[in-house]
Every structure is written in structure tokens, then in C-alpha cells.
């Protein structure tokens, strides 16, 4: 599909060349770039000048150098800004180093989220943005720094920039989310000795917005995937999805609630397989904003008969027939003071199974009648 899209794009662009000629097309392209730059500069000029700093982390509990730190200092000056990633961790002996082109893309993409969506998506809007990434770091490695799983670092760069921008424009930035998709990979040979590779990319627990709850099932803005359906996973691979659900009481507490944690349980139906995990945000849960509470952390547990083994956020393990991996994704952080949440929103969450009655009382001070599941207004006021 991606190759077909590129081929179509090339064909249509050649049609434009044939129709208008190279020079006319080039002049219009330059004008589009200049237009995007002008609009972006107008948007940046509306931000308050100043220096805004933030840091976030990747657990990286499978390597000696973990955790990995991403630091961002954003200097807004007039109609331009500088993103300085100095202070980020040195490059590591793991595949999560982010080559500088990907680092730049993550920075541009994060800032793009607060700009007018009608600004054309072209490199013109990037011109007012300067990006500094220290050499030999996890955000600008040198060869032979491994980078096959760089996605998680790109996600974290974006999360860090949003944390900094939330100080400049608090009413525009949502709380932190799950930190990008979790990858559960299971590979080996089935009963007929045919090779299989099940790669499950679990995504979608976003932080609360300044105007509403965090959406469930919506991937990180730096991602372009959706959750795999249970039926497709099971018909194509020797696996069985035992559980695929949202976890009650898991969303970050706030005036607006973060998205709930996803639970995914995968049982191995092959004689033996190799499990590989890429997850995060266990030691450093998603941050809340403006008084909102953090989201709940992730977890990985391998079940073999009556035995349970807690696995790190990243790493490998052997699975045998009947073994099950249970992954709980980190939830979205909350936004705003939890005591400002509308009681009716809390009651709706209880009726939907997203909140328990006990949690509604403890987290929000909202008392729910256990029979009607409506708000007990008098008790809540007290």
C-alpha cells in the first residue's frame, strides 16, 4: 500500500509538470513553502518568549545504561524557536538510539501539534525551528550505534517537548500518554514446522486534554498504526488472545481523565517460541498536567502453569505451549484538579465500567448510589 501510494504521488506530480511546466511548478512550490513559513512564524510569535525546560525517561531496564534521559530546552524568541536536546543520555548499547534525521522529525512533529492544522504540511513550517542534538548521544548517535527500535526514543522526544511547551501554552497541551506503542513479538515454528512471526503493536492510551478525557485506542501522534484485531492474529499465527480489554480505575485522575490502560494477554500455541518485548513507562509513568495525576504504570507478566515471572519493559524470553504473556499498557495522565471533575462524568464512567464506585469516592470525592449508579448529590457535596 505504501509503495502504491508513492507511485501514485509520483505519477500525479509528473502530471503537474506536464500540465504547467517545471518553472511554473517550482515557483508555486516555493510560494507554498514561504506561505507555510509565514503562518508558522505568526503562530510562534503568539507564544510567550522565554526558555522552557523538561525531561522525561525511557525505563531501558534491560541495559546497564538505563534509564535513558531525554532533556529538552525550548527557547522561544520572537517568531522562531530553538529546541536544544543537550543533557540527553549518551548513546547506548541497545537498538533505541535515534539518528538525527528521526530526532529532527520528532521535534518538528511535536511542535506541529500546537500549530494551526491548516498550515500546509511541508518543510516551510520547519524553517523557524532550530534543532540542536549533541553528537554521540541517544538523540544523535555515531556509527555503529544501533537504532532498529528508535521509535520509542522518537516518541519520548515528542513527549518531552510537549512537557516543555505546556509551560508556555498550558491550555493547548494534553497530559502525557502511554509513550508509544508496545510491541509484543512471538516467533518460531508451528506444528508443521512452518516459520511464524507474530508482531502485535498495542497502542492507544492518550493523556487527557484541556477540554476532555484522553481518547482510548488512539495511537501516539508519532505513530501510524492501529491495534490488530483478535481474529486476524489468531487465524494467521499459533497464538490465542485470552484478554483484550480496558482496565477499570486505571486512567490518570484529573478534571479530565486520562485514557485507560489496555490489557492484552497472548497465549502461545506453538511448542516453543521466542518472546520479544518493547514497552515502557513502568518506572516513569505518564505525567499529568495542571494538577492532574500521573497515569498508571505498565507491566509484563509471563505465566507458566502456576508460576508467574515479572519481565522487564524490554527484553526476550522463551515461551512454551500454554505459556501466556500478560501486558498492561501504561494509561494516560490526567489534566486539571480532580475535584473539578463534573460528578456526572464520574457517574457515566461508573456506568461504563471505567471507574469503580470506591475509586470514584477516593479519587474524585463523588459518591455514587450503588443501586441506581447515579450521583448522590448530598453526600458528594459533603
Major pleated sheet: 5 strands, antiparallel
Roughly how many Å apart are the termini? Answer: 58 Å
Principal-axis shape: globular
Secondary structural class? alpha+beta
Mean pLDDT: 96
How many helices? The count is 8
Which blocks of ≥5 consecutive residues have pLDDT under 50? none
State the total count of DSSP E strands: 13
Strand content: 15-25%
- SSE ordering: HHEEEHEHEEHEEEEEEEHHH
> Biggest sheet, strands in spatial order?
7-8-13-10-11
- Helical fraction: 25-40%
Gyration radius, in Å: 23 Å
Reconstruct the topology from this structure:
Blueprint: H1 2-20, H2 22-45, E1 50-58, E2 68-77, E3 80-84, H3 100-112, E4 129-132, H4 151-168, E5 182-189, E6 195-202, H5 230-236, E7 239-246, E8 262-268, E9 272-278, E10 299-304, E11 307-310, E12 314-320, E13 324-328, H6 343-351, H7 357-364, H8 377-381
In short:
The chain is of the alpha+beta class and 382 residues long.
Please tell me about this protein's structure.
By secondary structure, the chain is of the alpha+beta class. The chain is 27% helix and 23% strand. The strands form 3 sheets. It has a 5-stranded antiparallel beta sheet with strand order 7-8-13-10-11, covered by helices on one side. It has a 4-stranded mixed beta sheet with strand order 1-2-3-4. Strand 3, helix 3 and strand 4 form a beta-alpha-beta unit. Helix 1 crosses helix 2 and helix 3 runs parallel beside helix 4. The longest helix is centred in the first third of the chain and has 24 residues, at 22-45.
